Amino acid sequence: MLNIDAIHLREINLPLAHPFETSFGITTSRRILLIELESEGLTAWGECVAGEHPYFSDETIDTAWIITESELAPRLLEAHVERGGDCPNIFRQVRGHRMAKAALENAVWDLEAQVRRVSLAELLGGTRDVIPCGVSIGIQPSPDHLMDKIATELAAGYQRIKLKCKPGWDVSIFEAVRDRWPDITLSCDANSAYRMKDLENIVDWDRFNLLMIEQPLWYDDFYFHSMLQKRLLTSICLDESIRNRRDALAAIDMESCRIINIKVGRVGGFSEAVAVHNAAEERGIPVWCGGMLETGIGRSHNIALASLPNFSLPGDVSASSRYWAQDIIEPQVTVSAKGEIAVPTTIGRGFEVQRDRVESLTVRRQTLHAKARVTA
Ligand code: OSB
Ligand code: MG
């Protein structure tokens, strides 16, 4: 039994070390909802990956805050909780709001790992000692800026370069990058910036030998992606479209994609992330772990998840220093010269939260307490 005594919500504000531009906008600073669970002297953490605006997904930090405070946290405090895997059922009545649910559920798994005295990776079923790392490089002010960034990341050892793209920042960029680096593992991510009128343009990208094209079409689509995939040699990878295991099954059976990006926040927590992973594995579809510009808390959860066996492609989980002047965990997440992150084997998530730092970055807070328990 996991007796949760209190749930603390807090918002921290943290500037990114470098602005991050996608087809849907530029992020220069993050407003992040952190969850802290208190349970019989233990502290567990969760991070909500919803952004400030409803651009990547329909959730935002503000919707997540309200739903957590008014619906999810009260349910969790009243429930009989044995394990992290109980959370989907506890939250079942609330539709959607998967990023809000994930922040709480992942904190419960973090707590469960501490109570069982195992690493979070082990609790999730992880088998890897190290995870292979790639980087996601945002749209840059100029092609020269992009070339410099790629050179830096390759020198650091990253195994795969993913370029954010959009109409006007695509073919000419791929050409320039392939001219200079004909053999690197390269992919692109459109974040739904294209439509079927662009089909012939996208088919032409086959000549760049990309590992995958991530979410080229609508954020909620399977059918048109399957039409596009039929015309392409390059694999499509779905990100935004995959909300749960059933979506993964639909996408795989319709041949809308040949690769899946798993983001634990996007699918509603570790239980569903493992379910998507397993469904893909049974059908021979490789997965990789996506990122959402997380602090070290969400990042450490991503590392544990990415240690599962079917995370066979390099993910977007990279070093703390690529995002933050100083991360809020200790040690910071670092990547080896081979482009790998070591999966912690110590109890729990394996990185300490810098509590004083978090305290000083906090701009809003709210605490919910459990009702006094009756002990026999
Ligand atoms: O589509 O993968 C995406 C960041 C914010 C929103 C969506 C995406 C991303 C990234 C960055 O690609 C991944 C990372 O480095 O955390
Ligand atoms: Mg993506």
Describe this structure in words.
The chain has 376 residues and is an alpha/beta fold. The chain folds into 2 domains: 6-117 and 353-368, Enolase-like, domain 1; 122-349, TIM Barrel (Alpha-Beta Barrel), CATH 3.20.20.120. The chain is 33% helix and 22% strand. The strands form 4 sheets. It has a 7-stranded parallel beta sheet with strand order 5-6-7-8-9-10-11. The mean pLDDT is 97. The protein binds 2-succinylbenzoate and magnesium ion (MG). 2-succinylbenzoate binds next to loops. Magnesium ion (MG) binds at residues 189, 191, 214-215, 239, 261, 290.
Characteristic key phrases:
22% strand, 2 domains, binds magnesium ion, alpha/beta, 7-stranded parallel beta sheet, binds 2-succinylbenzoate, TIM Barrel, 12 helices, 376 residues, 33% helix
Helix percent band: 25-40%
Radius of gyration, whole Å? 20 Å
List bound small molecules.
2-succinylbenzoate, magnesium ion
CATH topology of the largest domain: TIM Barrel
The fraction of residues assigned to DSSP E strands is 15-25%
Task: Supply the CATH architecture of the largest domain.
Answer: Alpha-Beta Barrel
Arithmetic mean of pLDDT = 97
- What is the name of the CATH class of the largest domain? Alpha Beta
Order of helices and strands: EEEHHHHEEHEHEHEHEHEHEHEEEHE
CATH homologous superfamily grouping of the largest domain: Enolase-like C-terminal domain
Q: What's the total number of strands?
A: 15
